[in-house]
Design brief:
Oligomer: single chain
Distance between the termini: 44 Å
Number of strands: 20
Helix content: 40-55%
């Protein structure tokens, strides 16, 4: 079943989350009309590959044109034409942006499907999707709207003061021509005094209202706007390690910009009052007394608002590993993007952003890096992001510093994947006479020199962003905090839901926890430590990463059907199978091989003995040659009498094999030869005793024929330890 069909079967509450994903950037009409085609394209790669993104964008428009031409409903055909035109305007020059939008939507769909399969959400996801957040947003919208309304009213008051003052100025000048003792002059003086009193009242009123509004803006920034920004940054951390979709930056930009517009408008009002006081002033005039202090407060708020609005919109990420941001390999290009959330009314010159790597490193870091290429770019206005200023660095690289003797830094107390680094961004510009220095930095980065360090680096990235919201604690792994299993298990489940339509269920997580932590007490499970050695020649994180790669490239259809039990020990495997029908099998990931999947089936002998047979794990090399579902369909062993048969009858607990895997089989199927298996056999391990009447050794002719038919090199299997087709003797 396609992902979109699964989405349409969700409950209304979850469908509302889906509805939130689609807007003018990627209308739901396209998702509906091109569902199968969209799901078959590699949007993740295209998001970081401009040439592939261009090809996919062109193909998308062609697909839309095809669907539109076949549409019978005139209104629908018209709407699709409008959508097609909007996409061309929005993405023709930025196809990779479209690819990122679609990639994000598909990823979040998978997460929503995953949450529908889970019995309950984890604590982190719950905290990010509670109703309080929606109430906060409503409160912010209302409060920002009230402030804007108050500032608009203040504009009217300033205009009224200006009109009254112009009238006063005109009448005062006319008074100079009147006879000093005439009745008319006395009436005019009285009228002027009334006007001056009214003018004084209005000047005091506008300054009082300004004081109230400026205090309100100050409180808004302190109590709501800055916390909302920090909340977004925390959600960015969680999204970086596979958590829920990061949204809300456009909403933040709207709040920041509206607040800035209010402050700029108040500053213009103060400038206007300064002009008016030059023309008309008087004893105890409130403007000269209060304006300087008010102006300083407004400038200070503008400065801090703009300074805090400089954010890293896209954390550093290698295009080759879009699902693993914050890991940079030396010599490999990576991309990052910064954004100013305030739309500026004017900038005196081009706003240049400079990047610096490893600025202000903490003591104890043994390796240092620098950016050998151009590290300065000019911010520009993006049409597709509501006109904000931003800049994307697409071709940055790192190089390790060499010391006087020509050597590089040696490894210190921390391992390569525990050393944290950061990328800083700086800019400076003048706005309406106010000099503003901008500075922000990326989340901590792990720098590797070999792809074999990637799993360990990703473990460090997950551990850091799971357990702290500090943006730049580079000494974190000097004394890393402990994690609860509920925290860690949620993040581990996210690693699966980002590449498939489901994460891990409670049973799978428990099995994985036992693999990682062992059979310990609940107290231990609530205090997971960073140091972990599973007693294998490879780390837990390398083992997990190899499984994720195997699922992504070779097992996705079987995994999405929930047919792979996955994380189960050999002991538990036997417990589950021993009372099942002969031929019942289950699928699990190998504990002894990196990126291997195996299956075990149960047999019952006439005397009641239970036998468990397992195969050598299938790895990417063998799965690249034949889909896993076909392996299960065609798997054969030779029983007594040289008759090949498939021992796999029921997928655990009792699902007939063909009922479970039938729709995943390839349509092409070649019947087996009578004497030899036509598809992969594997080395089979059995817990039973050696056969009582082993078959005689094969002749050279038999060996040659068998070697032709099997899908693996039989020389790699020790014939002395096996009987004819895989059973150990």
């Amino acid at each position: 079943m396609s992902q979109w069909k699964q989405i349409q079967q969700l409950e209304i509450v979850l469908l509302e989350h889906v509805d939130y994903l689609y807007d003018d950037n990627f209308p739901m009409d396209i998702r509906q009309g091109l569902a199968s085609w969209i799901e078959s394209q590699d949007w993740d790669t295209a998001a970081n590959d401009e040439s592939l993104a261009t090809v996919l964008f062109t193909n998308l428009l062609s697909q839309l044109e095809r669907v539109r031409s076949q549409e019978q409903n005139f209104l629908q055909r018209h709407n699709m034409k409008i959508i097609q035109q909007q996409l061309q305007v929005k993405y023709t020059t930025h196809p990779a942006v479209m690819a990122r939008v679609i990639s994000t939507c598909l990823r979040e769909e998978r997460r929503i499907l995953s949450s529908a399969c889970m019995q309950e959400q984890g604590p982190l996801e719950k905290s990010l999707q509670n109703s309080v957040a929606f109430e906060r947003q409503k409160s912010m919208d209302n409060r920002v709207g009230v402030i804007r309304g108050s500032v608009q009213l203040m504009d009217q008051i300033v205009k009224y003061i200006e009109d009254v003052q112009d009238d006063f100025d005109f009448r005062y000048k006319r008074l100079q021509s009147l006879d000093g003792n005439s009745e008319m002059m006395k009436q005019e003086v009285t009228r002027l005094q009334d006007m001056l009193n009214r003018l004084d009242f209005k000047r005091k009123e506008i300054l009082s209202k300004m004081d109230v509004v400026v205090k309100e803006i100050d409180d808004l920034m302190t109590s709501q706007l800055n916390p909302e920004l920090q909340d977004w940054k925390r959600r960015q951390q969680i999204a970086a390690i596979g958590g829920p979709l990061l949204t809300g930056l456009d909403q933040l930009q709207s709040w920041f910009t509206l607040t800035a517009q209010s402050l700029f408008q108040i500053k213009r009002q103060l400038d206007k009052l300064g002009e008016l006081v030059v023309k008309v002033t008087y004893e105890s005039d409130p403007i000269p007394l209060q304006k300087p202090q008010m102006e300083d407060r407004v400038k200070c708020l503008i400065y801090h608002l703009i300074k805090s609005s400089f954010v890293v919109e896209k954390q550093p990420c290698m295009p080759t590993h879009p699902q693993k941001p914050l890991i940079i390999k030396t010599g490999v290009q990576f991309t990052t993007k910064v954004r100013l959330l305030v739309k500026l009314p004017e900038v005196d010159y081009q706003l240049k952003v400079k990047t610096t790597f490893d600025k202000d490193l903490p003591p104890g870091v043994s390796r240092q890096f620098f950016i050998p290429t151009n590290n300065t770019k000019v911010m520009d206005i993006e049409d597709y992001s509501n006109g904000c200023l931003s800049v994307e660095f697409r071709h940055l690289q790192l190089k390790e510093k060499k010391y006087i003797n020509g050597t590089k830094g040696s490894e210190g107390l921390l391992s390569v994947t525990e050393e944290l680094h950061s990328l800083s961004f700086e800019a400076c510009f003048t706005l309406q006479g106010l000099t503003i220095d901008l500075e922000t930095c990326s989340l901590p980065l792990v720098v590797i020199s070999n792809v074999s360090q990637l799993p360990g680096g990703w473990a460090s990235v997950m551990w850091y962003n799971l357990l702290t919201n500090e943006p730049r604690n580079l000494a974190f792994f000097g004394n890393p905090p402990r994690a609860s299993w509920s925290q860690l298990s949620e993040v581990l489940s996210w690693q699966f839901s980002t590449l498939a339509s489901r994460g891990l269920n409670k049973e799978q997580l428990t099995m994985l926890g036992e693999k990682l932590l062992g059979m310990f007490t609940l107290d231990f499970w609530n205090n997971c430590t960073w140091e972990n050695n599973p007693g294998k020649p490879f780390s837990f994180w390398m083992w997990l990463d190899s499984i994720l790669e195997l699922i992504k490239k070779h097992l996705l259809p079987v995994w999405n059907e929930n047919y792979i039990m996955g994380f189960v020990s050999k002991e538990m495997e036997r417990t589950l199978l021993k009372d099942r029908q002969p031929g019942t099998f289950l699928l699990r990931f190998s504990e002894s091989h990196l990126g291997g999947i195996t299956f075990t089936w149960v047999e019952h002998s006439d005397n009641g003995d239970v036998k468990f047979n397992s195969v050598e794990p299938y790895t990417k090399n063998r799965l690249s040659a034949l889909p896993f579902a076909d392996i299960i369909r065609d798997y054969k062993v030779i029983s007594d009498g040289f008759v090949p048969e498939n021992p796999l009858k029921f997928l655990y607990p009792d699902i007939p094999k063909d009922e479970a895997f039938g729709r995943l089989y390839n349509s092409h199927f070649s019947p087996s030869l009578v004497s030899f298996p036509s598809c992969p056999s594997s080395k089979v391990n059995t817990s039973s005793a050696p056969c009582q009447s082993p078959e005689p050794p094969m002749t050279p002719g038999e060996f040659d024929m068998l070697n032709e038919q099997l899908c693996f090199d039989i020389d790699s299997v020790s014939l002395g330890g096996l009987n004819h087709f895989g059973f150990k003797g």
